[in-house]
Design brief:
With about 350 residues, the protein is an alpha+beta fold. The protein has 6 helices and 17 strands. The strands form 3 sheets. The protein has a 12-stranded antiparallel beta sheet. The radius of gyration is 20 Å and the shape is globular.
């Protein structure tokens, strides 16, 4: 099937953005985003998925759904550089997920998904607890052809393009009727990263996960992050650009936890102005750079984007949250028995002190 090209309505930096859709032989899609209207390729066959059934099972005591995806047990684990599945394709080399020689930002449907559209289900033990199909979508977002790097090492133009990509993927998932979209990034061996090539992921659920459901309730019940930011910024602020602030929340659960939010309430990044999108893209790199400078090393962390669900939520205020797994350069913050058993975290670093350190 020929590649399909679509021009974005939005234009930034004087350049249009194009989305090229490639159809894999196994039915998965690859979306190539960038400023080039024409793209050469494909030049090689792509990797082929072996989809397995995924299931949601209900935990009656915690009152939550959990995903069972046994096919992920065989996912790629720390391949050599020569076998990097996120690399650009090279003629005569092993196939990758992206059968093109050059690209800017690429999104593709995960070969080992936890969630699948119209997912078959393993419901043979449904008498034991409630089960249902794990419907949704899992996507991988590759930041470029460079096999090493981070949000800090990307150019501002590339981070800005990444913001546009996230917004497009939100819209695509919402258009398909999926209820909650979570773009995220895992960075570092300590977090369990199995592919070193700079990338993130997106999970799109057909329900609102329990943590985000609490966010929805809190905002609906009157929590006003817009007002709180004004009160916090002096003691907890780290950096600010274009009406967007990076700060350590006073109730942080991780040492050196940082959030990014606009001063004005926005339900998601799709409501950001061009100035806010530019500032937000810059702060994604700024926070990562400050972490690495402070700890003197590539800082393992989890980053996630928390926006309103498709059905909307009164008062919801979009945040991007970084959870570092270090409490000092050589000390890891382990989530051990108490945290895992109760959800009650013990924090070794005061957020106001962490803000001062990262600010400096």
């Amino acid at each position: 099937m020929p590649i399909e090209t679509k021009k974005f309505a939005s234009v930034f930096g004087g350049k249009s953005v194009y989305k090229h859709t490639h159809h894999n032989q196994d039915g998965r899609k690859v979306w190539l985003y960038g400023h080039e209207q024409e793209i050469k390729g494909p030049i090689s066959p792509e990797l082929v998925s072996e989809p397995d059934a995924t299931t949601l099972r209900w935990h009656p005591l915690r009152q939550e759904w959990n995903i069972y995806a046994p096919g992920r047990q065989n996912r790629t684990h720390k391949p050599s550089s020569a076998n990097d599945p996120l690399a650009a394709a090279k003629t005569g080399h092993s196939p990758t997920e992206i059968p093109y020689a050059d690209f800017e930002v690429v999104v593709f449907e995960n070969r080992f998904p936890s969630l699948r559209m119209s997912a078959p289900s393993r419901c043979d033990l449904s008498h034991a607890t409630a089960t249902r199909s794990a419907n949704g979508r899992c996507e991988v977002v590759v930041y470029g052809t460079d096999e090493k790097g981070s949000l800090a090492s990307l150019s501002q133009a590339r981070r800005r393009l990444l913001v546009e990509v996230w917004i497009d993927r939100y819209k695509a998932a919402f258009d398909d009727g999926l209820e909650y979209v979570l773009p995220f990034e895992n960075r570092g061996d300590e977090v369990g990263v199995t592919l070193a090539h700079p990338h993130g992921q997106i999970y799109a659920f057909d329900f609102v996960p329990p943590v985000q459901a609490k966010f929805v309730d809190s905002f609906a019940n009157g929590f006003d992050l817009e007002s709180e930011l004004t009160a916090w910024v002096e003691d907890f602020g780290i950096a600010e650009q274009g009406g967007v602030i990076a700060f350590c929340p006073p109730f942080a659960r991780f040492p050196f936890e940082v959030w990014i939010a606009s001063r004005r309430r926005c339900a998601g990044p799709w409501e950001y102005t061009d100035e806010e999108r530019e500032a937000y893209a810059s702060l994604l790199g700024e926070v990562t750079k400050r972490y690495d400078a402070y700890f003197g090393r590539a800082t393992p962390n989890m980053m996630s984007l928390h926006a309103a669900p498709r059905s909307g939520a009164g008062g919801f205020h979009f945040t991007t949250q970084f959870y570092p797994l270090l409490r000092s350069a050589e000390k890891i913050k382990y989530l051990a028995s108490v945290e895992q058993s109760t959800g009650v975290f013990t924090i070794d670093v005061m957020p106001e002190w962490a803000a001062r350190e990262l600010r400096a």
